[in-house]
Amino acid sequence: MITPRASLQSVLEGRADVAPLDSYFHALLKRHEPETAGRLRVVARTQPTANPMLVASQEIDPRIVRRLGEAFEEARQDPALQTHLEALCLLGFARVPDPERYRILGEWDREAIAAGYLMPC
Predict the structure, then answer these.
(1) Quick check: pTM over 0.85?
(2) Per residue in 34-85, pLDDT tens?
């Protein structure tokens, strides 16, 4: 399976010279595995993008989806959840994200496919 952890492991084991890691994964790594993060070197950066969206299947009752969205939004205001949000390197959630913030991801996908990268190695 292709995951940030698997990509990272391929570099740490010497099976790859470089691997893509998104900044969110890297932030989590620095927070929870500083020794591992210390073994890495950032060689390039892309422009910042929005974090992945949390989505639900169309079969899920819309009331449940609405309540989950409300709960995620409210999490930022709940003092009992602050340590969890900090551990996850999250400031909060946006219920209706701006689609324009995700446009670049589609462009990068099309560029990769055009260059022959149908799937990460």
Answers:
(1) no
(2) 999 999 999 999 888 877 778 889 999 999 999 998 998 899 899 999 999 9
In a domain, 12, yes or no: yes
Burial of 13 per CB tally in 10 Å (0-12, 13-18, 19+)? exposed
Q: Does a structural domain hold residue 20?
A: yes
Task: Note whether residue 3 is domain-resident.
Answer: yes
Count up the domains in the chain and report the number. 1
Which domain range does residue 5 map to?
Answer: 1-45
- The structure tokens listed for 96 are 């209706």
Cα→Cα distances 121→7, 15, 19, 51, 62, Å: 9, 11, 9, 22, 37
